[in-house]
Amino acid sequence: MNAMTDKLNHNDDQSGQAGLLRFITAGSVDDGKSTLIGRLLFDSKGIFADQLAAVSRSKHKRTVGDTIDLSLLTDGLEAEREQGITIDVAYRYFATPKRKFIIADTPGHEQYTRNMVTGASTADAVIILVDVSKVKLGDDGSVELLVQTKRHSTIAKLLQIEHVIVAVNKMDLVNYDRTVYDRIVAEYTRFANTLGLKDITAIPLSALAGDNVVEQGDNMPWYEGPTLIELLESLSVYDET
């Protein structure tokens, strides 16, 4: 363990919090990874006022009107902001009353897969984002996941990441349709079983709107599980000490 981790874990022991959780976001490009992290930081009060002001003034805002582009909270490199993608691994720290977290926002583009592996190598959990608008749903009942979704899931298995969270994102684009969600989760579960992934939890959410990230919201009353932050707060962590 490095000095930062030692200090954080010592503080956990003193406060009675759950242990420090390291997690990564993964999935294909534009699935909403950076926006999800921005939403976690924003809704959990994990950003400073000057950071928020800087994002609001940014010339690279990619949303319309007065909406804050939360993805810019993690897209740190100038090249990333110009292209609207994540190239390097961006690490962020935040905390809730129940737990401390270190997030690694990893690239979705295929050519930056090595950077994703770097971010995943020390992770306790991985959030695999699945963009509902990109999944091919056939009239015959077939479901086709994106290649990067499968690739990053395979990497998670190879690196023996303990917890896998399937974040079915952009539910607002399909009118929060439970049937769409259920079909995607069923197909991902089938694929995950072929890999031997064990601890899998699926959550329907909208990172942009904030549904089921930190707050439950009213758009998916059919979902009775935890929000993303509640799940992250509850995950067990293997203690190497």
Which terms would index this structure?
241 residues, alpha/beta, Rossmann fold, 6-stranded mixed beta sheet, two-stranded antiparallel sheet, 35% helix, globular, disordered N terminus
What does this structure look like?
The chain has helices at 3-15, 33-43, 49-57, 78-83, 113-120, 147-158, 178-195, 228-234, and strands at residues 21-26, 90-96, 99-105, 125-131, 136-137, 143-144, 163-169, 199-204. With 241 residues, the chain is of the alpha/beta class. The chain has one domain (20-232): 3-Layer(aba) Sandwich (Rossmann fold). A hairpin with a 2-residue loop joins strand 2 (90-96) and strand 3. The chain is globular.
Write the layout of secondary structure elements.
Layout: H1 3-15, E1 21-26, H2 33-43, H3 49-57, H4 78-83, E2 90-96, E3 99-105, H5 113-120, E4 125-131, E5 136-137, E6 143-144, H6 147-158, E7 163-169, H7 178-195, E8 199-204, H8 228-234
CATH class: Alpha Beta
Structural class: alpha/beta
- Counting H and I runs of at least 4 residues, what is the number of helices? 8
CATH architecture: 3-Layer(aba) Sandwich
At the fourth level of CATH, the homologous superfamily is P-loop containing nucleotide triphosphate hydrolases
CATH domain fold name: Rossmann fold
Low-confidence stretches: 1-15, 48-53, 55-67, 75-86
Radius of gyration: 17 Å
Helix content range of the residues, please? 25-40%
Number of domains: 1
